[in-house]
Amino acid sequence: MTSILVVCTGNICRSPIAEGMLRDALSSRFGDDAPSVSSAGTWGVEGSPPTAEAVAAAAERGIDISAHRARRLAMVPAADADLVIAMAGEHRDIVSEEVGAGERAFTLKELVRLLESLPPVPPGAGPGSLSARVEQAHAARQAGFAGNPLDDDVVDPIGMPLLTYRATAWELDEWVARLVDGLYGAEPMPAAREG
């Protein structure tokens, strides 16, 4: 089974929300065949719960992260992940340098922009096409695709009011939806019924 790892700093705000959203989107599309999704932090306290604001903001978007517990990147087999999605460039760089998964590590926004610059995925792409799509994105990055390096990070809401967490959750929801379409192609719209 393919696997996706989402990484931020403490694994109590951004990455748990993104993990929950991505897991939900992939499960909706592929059911039991969906890639596994997990998350970790580059720094933080192992076993910490998500912040109350992160739980609330995710719940407002239909995602329950209340049972999440933080994991440190050092304790996770990140090198085995088929794709590592970082919330910020610093996380991508840590994964690249310390884990050695640089060709599979991207910020969320960087990866979406790379995927959207590629030819679309043929209809009916399944979860097994993940590695090929990640390779294509890495090749595009190596070829000099610049994207928007001034807007690669998802802002860390830690210590901010619930309104900031809501904005972060809204932003993650949009980028995760674009990510799934970029990796697997847009789902066809249901046919309109006559009558």
| CATH architectural category | 3-Layer(aba) Sandwich
| Approximate strand percentage | 5-15%
How would you spell out the order of helices and strands?
EHEHEHEHHH
Strand order of the largest sheet: 2-1-3-4
Tally of structural domains: 1
Biggest sheet statistics: 4 strands, parallel
Helix/strand-derived class? alpha/beta
The fourth-level CATH homologous superfamily is Response regulator
- Radius of gyration from the CA trace? 16 Å
- Outline the low-pLDDT stretches: none
Task: Report on this structure.
- The chain is of the alpha/beta class and 195 residues long.
- It contains six helices and four strands; from the N terminus they run E-H-E-H-E-H-E-H-H-H.
- The protein has helices at 14-30, 52-60, 89-99, 108-117, 130-142, 162-184, and strands spanning 3-8, 36-41, 83-86, 105-107.
- Helix 4 (108-117) packs across helix 5 (130-142).
- The N and C termini lie far apart (43 Å).
- The mean pLDDT is 92.
Sum this structure up briefly.
The chain has 195 residues and is an alpha/beta fold. It is built from six helices and four strands, in the order βαβαβαβααα. The mean pLDDT is 92.
SSE diagram, text form:
Layout lengths: L2 E6 L5 H17 L5 E6 L10 H9 L22 E4 L2 H11 L5 E3 H10 L12 H13 L19 H23 L11
Parallel strand pairs: 1-2, 1-3, 3-4
Helix pairs in contact: 1-2, 1-6, 2-6, 4-5, 4-6
